[in-house]
Structure formats: structure tokens, C-alpha cells
Amino acid sequence: MIRKTVEYIKVPKKIFYSILIFLGLAFLAFSLRPQKVLVDATIIKKGLFQKTITDEGFTNFKVKHTISAPADGIIPTHDWKAGNEVKKKQKLFKFEWDRDFYITSPLDGFILQVFEKDRKHVVRGTPILEVGSPESVEIIAAYLSEEVLNIKKGQKALITNWGGDKPLSATVSEIEPQAREEISALGVKEKRVNVHLDILTDRMHWKSLGDGFRVEVSILVNEIPNVLLIPIGSLFSKDGQPAIFVIENDQLKLTPVEIGDRNQEFALLLSQNLQENVKVVLYPGSTLKNGDKIKVRN
């Protein structure tokens, strides 16, 4: 049997400890090296900018008529109810006077209100019924007075939350010249102005809309095609000015920007030094700084 002997090389302790120290320092340096920060990213886009102002509104029949007693006399008990359909010149009830005659409807439409229903003696001018024409429906929305400064006659609008599947197209037809004071749900005094809109969508799609129905109105107050758009979530304030973090080679570049109008999603980017498809940080945290190495989340 052949025995092999293994010779060990003796390393001086000084050199051995030096190697250990070197390896320890190398490991420490590696572990303390700057780590890449995970960020969310998006890009600067080019497209159509639109800004709308949204508020609650209600439907209103512009053509309404209150049927009143033409003289002192007696009205009979009748069965008319709000919502009943009537035709122009249709007999509504017999009015008892020096001579009896029938009161007729002045228009095609619906009964909106019933003021008097039971037989009784009434004086001239007593309101009995109110009728309205659905053909004359409009939308009225009360906007804050400072918002109305951006609203103009003829501007486009969308009517939503009216009960149908699709929004209705509308246009601003009138802006009342006087504001009125209202108390908001939070108890704050507000100045509001009534804005009137005509529905453009064919009536066959919304004929179920009556008088006084609640809707939501969004008026298009600004529209600019083919402009640079930056997501609102990319912007932050630096020294009182808007700024973004541009991503270049996985590194952050703090970039002041000039912006114009904005909506809920995007701001108009006016800066000349930025272009479409430039990658920027989305929702930058307060700890990020210029020059940071980053990694974009998938």
C-alpha cells in the first residue's frame, strides 16, 4: 500500500490576518455600496388635452303653463295626477261659472303639479294644475362663480348619471348674469351661477327624462390637440417651482418644468427641453434626490 503525504504550506500569521482583513473590508464595501431604489415610471405623452368642470344639475321644462281659475267659480273633483300625459286642447275639467265651460290643456305634455283636486269654490287666478312640455327640456347646473369665468356659450358638455347607459351630448345655451349665495354641505357660503344647457342627443334616447331630474354635468372648458402631456402624479414642488425626475440610464435627473393648464390626470407641459416618450418617475417619494440610482418596477 502506497501512502501519499500531503505537504501544507505554512502562511505567516501576519499575511494570513492581512488577507482576512482585506476580505472583510471588501465584503463590507460591497454590502455598503449604494443600492438601487425601486420606483414607478411613466412617460411624457403627446395627445389631446381636455379640461372639464363638473357639477350637479337638474332637468327643467322651459315651456310650462299654470292652469288657473279664469273667474270666481267652482272646480269639480278630478282624477288628474302628476305624470299624466295630456294633449293640446284636451278637456281637463268642467269649470262652473255663470255658464259652464271646459278648461283645456294649452300644450302637449304632462301634468307636473296638482294644486287643487277636490270640488271647491275658487277665486279668479287660483292655480289648479301645472302642465309642461318635455320637448322643451333643458339642463340647469349651478357652478361656482369663479368657475363660470371659464364657461362660455356654445361650449360642449356631457350629461351623465341621468339614468341611461350612455352620456348625453349637450351645449351651453345661457349663463345667468347674477350669482346667488348658497350654503354648501360643509356649511360654507358659496356664490353660484346657473348655467343652462340644451341636450343635443336625439330625444328618443332620453325621452324618459322628466322635469326636476338630477343629473351630472361636465362642461368642456379647454381643448388643445397635439400637445405634450405629463401625468399629474409625476409633478412635485422644488423651491416653490414644479419639477420632475427624468430617468436617464437608470439614474435620476432633477428637472424643473414649466406647466400650463391641468385636468385631473395630466398637465400641459410647456418646457422646450423635454420631448415625447421621455421616461419620468411616477409618484416620487420625498427621499429621492438628483443622481440616485434607480430600478423601475415591473
Supply the key terms.
298 residues, mainly beta, 6-stranded antiparallel barrel, 2 helices, 23 strands
Would you write up a description of this structure?
- Helix content is 8%, strand content 48%.
- The protein is mainly beta and 298 residues long.
- The strands form 6 sheets. The chain has a 6-stranded antiparallel beta barrel with strand order 2-11-15-13-12-16. A 4-stranded antiparallel beta sheet has the order 3-10-8-5, with no helix packed on it. Strands 22-1-23 form a 3-stranded mixed beta sheet, with no helix packed on it.
- Strand 12 and strand 13 form a beta hairpin.
What is the gist of this entry?
The protein has 298 residues and is mainly beta. 8% of the residues lie in helices and 48% in strands. The protein has helices at residues 13-31, 145-148, and strands at 37-43, 45-61, 64-68, 73-75, 85-86, 91-95, 101-104, 109-114, 120-122, 127-132, 137-144, 156-160, 168-175, 180-183, 189-199, 214-231, 236-238, 241-248, 251-256, 259-262, 266-269, 279-282, 294-296.
